[in-house]
Design goal:
single chain
Length: 98
């Protein structure tokens, strides 16, 4: 189930937010780390964690919630794109598959 959810998140990042496949690998790597710190896998349970997962993981939770067709999140798209840009600046490229 986790791989299906991850594939949906990757598709959301690639086709809805228009990120390069190599950038998607780096974004997923950061999201997995944040989910692991919160005690979850990158799946629907992490998407529902929200601010309970921590202030940094709130962005990743919002992305998962949006990708899986949830009702949305309290985080604006501007803030999501800003955090993704920070992840891309501070993390070395991970390839197409994170």
């Amino acid at each position: 189930m986790d791989s299906i959810d991850e594939a949906k998140v990757m598709g959301f990042l690639r086709y809805r937010l228009n990120y390069d496949p190599y950038e998607v690998g780096t974004i997923i790597y950061n999201m997995r780390d944040l989910a692991r710190m919160a005690g979850h896998a990158l799946d629907h349970r992490f998407g529902g964690a929200g601010l309970g997962a921590g202030p940094e993981a709130r962005i990743a939770c919002g992305i998962v919630e949006l990708a899986l067709g949830g009702g949305g999140c309290e985080t604006s798209m501007y803030t999501i794109r800003q955090e993704i840009a920070r992840w891309l600046r501070t993390t070395p490229p991970k390839g197409m598959i994170a």
